[in-house]
Specification:
- By secondary structure, the chain is mainly α.
- Helices cover 65% and strands 4% of the residues.
- The protein is built from ten helices and three strands.
- It has helices at residues 12-26, 37-44, 48-60, 79-103, 106-111, 113-120, 128-144, 149-172, 183-193, 197-215, and strands at 34-35, 64-67, 71-74.
- A three-stranded antiparallel β-sheet has the order 1-3-2.
- Strand 2 (64-67) and strand 3 (71-74) form a beta hairpin.
- Helix 2 packs across helix 3 (48-60), helix 4 (79-103) packs across helix 7 (128-144) and helix 4 (79-103) packs antiparallel against helix 8 (149-172).
- It is globular.
- The chain starts with 11 loop residues before the first helix and ends in an 8-residue tail after the last helix.
Length: 223
């Protein structure tokens, strides 16, 4: 982890949170790793105050777990966590899709396809997590079209936890392929373009059911 740019306009604790978050999502800080305030303060050349604020923010995002008398640890997320995160994501996307179908312009809907093209045509050497960036960008852009800032903020927290879950899944299943079924996202996009709420809901439900089964095969993650 690098020292934050002290000249940046964001608060110091936000810069530190960004760096710790990146270290967690990249795997530099592994699940279960202990976050020691004094060590982080020395690393970043600051007092413990900004470190404490950064850790609190990451705990709110679900990337860090704060335990009484044990300190703060990088979260270890499970198949059950995946089920909860995907349930929230699905609910937010279904709600967003209703607004998007009613209000979004045709060109805005067709613009979502750029993310799918990047997902479906990975460059040579692209790994699973590299492609996941395009997957999440498609879903983020869908929710953004609802133009609801509170919804977008909640959704972004779920995406952050999703990325940590995807890293866990890729470690547990090294054979995890980068290619999703084309229909997994294409059906969602087509339903939006057709302005069909029922089809959008069905496509989202099918997508998340398939995603859960693919990431943690053999585990019942949602009843």
């Amino acid at each position: 982890m690098q020292r934050p740019d002290l000249a940046a306009p964001s608060a110091l604790w936000e810069n530190i949170a960004d760096l710790i978050r990146a270290a967690i999502l990249s795997g530099e800080l592994e699940p279960g790793s202990k976050l020691i305030e004094t060590e982080l303060a020395e690393r970043f050349g600051t007092s413990r105050g900004p470190i404490r604020e950064a850790i609190r923010e990451l705990a709110r995002e679900g990337l860090v777990t704060e335990l009484p008398r044990r300190g703060s640890l990088v979260s270890t997320l499970t198949a059950h966590d995946l089920s909860e995160v995907y349930a929230v994501r699905q609910a937010l996307e279904v709600a967003a899709s209703r607004v998007v179908i009613a209000r979004a312009r045709d060109d805005e809907l067709h613009a979502l396809e750029t993310h799918l093209e990047a997902l479906e045509s990975p460059p040579p050497g692209a790994g699973y997590l590299d492609q996941a960036v395009h997957d999440l960008a498609f879903h983020r852009s869908l929710v953004a079209l609802a133009r609801n800032e509170r919804m977008a903020t909640m959704y972004e927290q779920m995406l952050t936890q999703t990325m940590l879950l995807l890293r866990t899944a890729s470690l547990e299943n090294p054979a995890l392929r980068t290619d999703l079924r084309r229909a997994a996202h294409r059906d969602i996009l087509q339903a939006l373009i057709d302005r069909d709420e029922a089809a959008a809901r069905a496509a989202l439900e099918a997508h998340y059911r398939y995603a859960e089964e693919r990431l943690f095969p053999g585990v019942t993650v949602r009843g």
